[in-house]
Amino acid sequence: MKIKKYRAETMQEAILKVKSDLGADAIILHTRKFKQGGFFGLFAKKMVEVIATVDQDNKKRKESKLSESRQANEDNILKSELSQMKHMMNDMMGELKNKNQQSLHLVVNPSLERLIDALWTLGLSRKMARELAEEIADKVDLKDLNSEEIKDVLREKLKKEFIDIKPIELESGKTKIISLVGPTGVGKTTTLAKLAARFSLFENKKVGLITADTYRIAAVEQLKTYSEIINLPLEVVFTPQELLNAIEGYQGYDLVLVDTAGRSQNNQLHISELKGFINNVPIDEIYLVLSATTKVNDLMKIIEVYNEIDLDKLIITKLDETNSWGTILEATAKAKKPLSYITVGQDVPEDIKLPESEQLIEDILKGLEL
Ligand code: GDP
């Protein structure tokens, strides 16, 4: 405990000194008046003396009280901020809930869902079906799901955006070399035979055949049989050099069709082999052959893999086996390549068509049931 002595002419002055030195918590221990200076009691100055101290514990208590009250104050501010935040959160949650309910309302919009399902059964992916359905919903009232109205919107859209059909175009005096690629079993060899017959028998073109599909003996035999029936020359090649020689051997021909070995789209080695095979020879156009019976997801994967080769056009086979002609839309959209021929049966040569776009759209839409 610190004890100090203060002297001043008046009590107020002394107390002021105490306060300014020891603070407001100073405790006065003793005061006295005395006389200072003078001569034998004459002319002496009246003075005041104050002895004071400060209660440190009390000061600390006060300080801690002060900090307690500050803390309490801060706590109160925090509490009120928290409660404000809580309110804000509640409001936000309310809004979110509202929005969710709205989108939930969209998701369970039964008419829209029915339309998506209907488009899906056309052979479209769920994604394309939803996108199309939402576009349709912007244009027509889905309440009564009027098929004709919906088909009209689709017709317009398909005409503008999807259907680009390009046949094999021959130039006189030039040999066009076309190669068919695609997974095994999709109908490449059969399609090649159909095209060969179409151009040689119906269009009087000079057609030569080459098969590099030597992986399966049956494939060579199959094309050999067709070539004999249609009476066309067939070369069987095992290497890119042999393929080059065979192509050179067909000088003066209008059309040379090259069959390639099909393997699973998961066989990456095959794709690079195939690339090596056809990139080293002067092939004019490469057609990817796809089956309409393939599941959309697999079809997407096949296209992704074969797009590594510089594809020109698509041929879609086996449309006679399915009502899901929408796969044509998925395939052309994914590959970003035009469609050329479609095949609709096993018979050579008749089951191949160069579709006419309006008819094709009708064929795609005929499967639409609402
Ligand atoms: P590749 O392995 O791709 O050469 O396929 P293929 O030409 O050997 O054909 C495989 C099977 O599909 C054969 O049984 C063909 O008759 C059949 N096929 C080919 N095109 C069509 C078609 O358009 N419709 C139907 N239903 N079957 C087809």
UniProtKB/TrEMBL annotation:
Domain SRP54-type proteins GTP-binding: 175-366
Topology class, membrane: Peripheral membrane protein
SMART domains with a match to the protein in the record: AAA (SM00382), SRP54 (SM00962)
Subcellular location: Cell membrane
A single cellular component GO annotation: plasma membrane
The AAA+ ATPase domain, residue ranges: 174-321
CDD domains assigned to the protein according to its UniProt record, in alphabetical order: FlhF
Organism superkingdom: Bacteria
Pfam families, alphabetized: SRP54
InterPro entries assigned to the protein according to its UniProt record, in alphabetical order: AAA+_ATPase, FlhF, FlhF__GTPase_dom, P-loop_NTPase, SRP54_GTPase_dom
Main location: membrane
Gene3D superfamilies, A to Z: Flagellar FlhF biosynthesis protein, N domain, P-loop containing nucleotide triphosphate hydrolases
Single Gene Ontology BP annotation: bacterial-type flagellum organization
Keywords (A to Z) from UniProt: Bacterial flagellum biogenesis, Bacterial flagellum protein export, Cell membrane, Cell projection, Cilium, Flagellum, GTP-binding, Membrane, Nucleotide-binding, Protein transport, Transport
GO molecular function: GTP binding; GTPase activity; signal recognition particle binding
Known function: Necessary for flagellar biosynthesis. May be involved in translocation of the flagellum.
Family, as annotated: Belongs to the GTP-binding SRP family.
Protein name as it appears in the record: Flagellar biosynthesis protein FlhF
Organism of derivation: Orenia metallireducens
